[in-house]
Queue: 4 jobs
Job 1
Amino acid sequence: MIKKITILKQIDSLIGKQLIHAVRFIIQVRGNIPEIHRILLIRPGGIGDAVLLLPAIRSLKEKFPNAEIDILCEKRNAGVFTLSNDINRIYLYDKGLGLFKCLKNRYDAVIDTEQWHRLSAVVAYISKAPVRIGFSTNERDRLFTHRIHYSQEDYEVNSFFHLIEPLVGNTPDFNTECPFINLNEDVPDRLLTYFRKGSGEIVSISPGASAVERRWGGERFGQVAKTLNASGYRVAILGSQTDKTDAEKIKRYAPECIDLTGITTLKDAAYILKLSRLLITSDSGIMHIAYGVGTPTVSLFGSGIEKKWAPRGKRHVVLNKNLKCSPCTRFGYTPRCKKNADCMKQIAEDGVLKKALDLLEGET
């Protein structure tokens, strides 16, 4: 799957501009605004973007309660959209014939939520939807009927709200203290079995991140987990199969940790986070899911843009050394670090522990 995404990004960088000129020449699309009965949102990218798109989807459904809302996304973030009751169909453009099945539909509006790459804008244009909305970050904006300014200074929830303004008429309100992922079902028994042995409140740790520069290290998370275990908390390790190595390092320090890396879905992770008193995490997709379900977080930032991506609200703490060279990530791309991710290395274990225990004990 990672290879597929890498190939798509390479295609985008090599021929994206040419594709935009070609489709505009070959396909002529009118831009009259119709009644809105069916909407498509295109969401490439990772888990965090998908999670922070959910409030905008909710606002669209409130404005158009009878409209059908479809999602065109990747296999890696599709699980996020199963957490929403406002979505009718989920199509995967990187698996099977999902893209072609999606484009066979007729949409009144297509919203491209991608921030930079061009292929999704081409897809929006090929759909022939009379309303096509997207961010005006490069020549991709020539394929939209409504071009939306994108700022690195805006919290990403608000950036997505700006995208739907042409349809809903205003910028929706967002309560930073209110969960926006509703888990209506009870926690599945198969997940509860992991926690039946032992006692104590659950604290989750997520050591993973999409870029190596955002990782804090299994040994350091392990030292934090060891102290939490000694303080009477049970620690659950969340992540994908790629986080197994860090999970093993954590368990060397804290053998009693419940290792769930690689064996849970995104929906499972949401349930576990709902059970948890706290999540300690690097800048990752799991961080956004915790925020969405209302679980407090201690998040570690370095290369990522805190103002754009960090959870908001009184129960969320960010540790960030704010070095001169950070943040360095732009439009999802983190350059190779020449300083060996010093922005993360300078975040001390005792500082993370203090913030975590303050939240657990009711202090902020």
Job 2
Amino acid sequence: MYKAILDDPALYFDNLRYTQHYKTAIRIYDNNKIFGIGLKNYRIESGKKVYQDLQTSTHPHQVHFEFLSELGIVGYLSLIIFFAYHFHKLRKNKLFNDNLNLVGLLFIITSLLPFLPSGSFFTSNGATLFWMNFAMMTLNQKKIDYEFFK
């Protein structure tokens, strides 16, 4: 496997299982850059004749490609700003010393790593775990905020 990567990396990555899904998502994004195609519409859009030469699926199997194709650059940047704001608040209040927040943060970062195949972000069990971890971190943050105002 490593020899194939070193010999011809472009050919190796082009033959991966999900590469066609990624290419479809990129083409969908290219055709709908600003606002995307809407949540959970990837399966409908990828089935159109425009994408006939590529392999279709219900989702692109990678969260960043899913965000870009379904939400466009506006939705993608909104999500990035949303997460950056909450991570900044956690870091500012030094809440990563708490094990619950640290574990939640590690799970969220792992879920958002680029180029790792994943399930559909908006409709999978993984998304449920993601948002539960995020909610626990945010709930802990709110507790700190409320104590500040007492």
Job 3
Amino acid sequence: MTPSQTKKLDELATALDMDPVALLAIAVLLRNKDSPSATLDRAKEQVDSFFAAGAEELLREHFSDNELIKRPPGKPQNSKSLEAVRELRAAGCSQSQVVEKLGLSRSTVHRYWRS
């Protein structure tokens, strides 16, 4: 959801004296033509699975003082791959050799090679 959509959801939920999660659940069950219990059961399973996988900590890393931390555009670097490229470069390997040894794409190796 965009910040403006989140704000609208909060405003509508407040006007209806509802929790935004309840309002969103109602919208989902109406869209899916599902029962309230099936929608909530499915949501609970997904939330439980999210926490069981340890994703909570990963998600928290993207927030500071309840604000989403903006990251630069583009795909984030894989620090392990970056380090492996640097080590092979220092060992005298060519970019083509690094592509072969690590199984990374040429563009990824080239990007890591320059950084």
Job 4
Amino acid sequence: MNKDSKSPKGESRPSYTYKGAGVDIDAGNRLVTDIKPLAKATARAGTDAVLGGFGALFDLKALSYQDPLLVATTDGVGTKLKVALEVHEHKTIGIDLVAMCVNDLITQGAEPVFLLDYIAMGKLTPHIAVDVVAGIAAGCREAGCALIGGETAEMPGMYPPDEYDLAGFAVGAVEKDRIVDGSKIAPGDAVLGLASSGAHSNGYSLIRRVLERARPDLSADFHGRPLADVIMEPTRIYVKPILDLFGQVPVKGLAHITGGGITENVPRILAEELTAEIALGAWPRPPLFGWLQAQGGVAEQEMLRVFNCGIGMVVVVAAADATRAMGSLQQAGETVWQIGTIRSRRPGEARALVA
């Protein structure tokens, strides 16, 4: 509040300001200045990734597409934010945000070209906001897309002063004749699974419930790392290895294993008459998932519906291309297994059989 003012009746009353109401415009302006270099470091053909205007421009012609389609996705990181706040780790949550958006884009064959972010905070805490945006910029660089704009909103009363929320909006481009939509998947095709880096950004409401029950020391060693680091490991970004794969073999289908796990995400790319037979023993389940299952008494089917259980992306190729596809992915730094096959679906049968 500033100096008192007079009411129409001549009574003295307090004079309000926006800052006094909880929104600091000057702090917001300083934040924009602080994050401009982070965004500029993500610049790519088609944009210079300079922040500050009312809108962001992207020149699609700079990418030399002949007959492009734009693909758009939006996502957040869910209640993983609650864990980030608890362990004071804000430098990697932005990578999660980017990954959840761009991994969806690549499933349709689209190259991510730009991303916008939205950060809503109860009270603008500059060092936290900069850490978050630094993570977003790092994720964008890894995915090869530009951070061309966004919004940081200070919203007292909407969020507690020490909390914030995130959303991301990504756009990619793909030649119309190179869209990956699962329509060419056929019986006999191979199902490949790419290793996840951890729980990624799904199932954290259940993870938090397990943590409440188990009350572990998050700083304690867990298979060579602090448990907090394992739980907060950022979502793996699969964009560049899969873009490379497109140049090696025909990719028939891609499924990003997010909420719903393998059992609900793989069927999204299959025709009604097909099913995927997935062998659980085809890959080692990371220790985190075993710990969560044991500590929470979580049933196996619930694990498979909630968590990725070690597989972050599924790739479907012809059986004859499986070895070459796996070699390409491994050369790009991925850990990959053949985890199943496609076959015709019997009446009443599930569209993903995991056993």
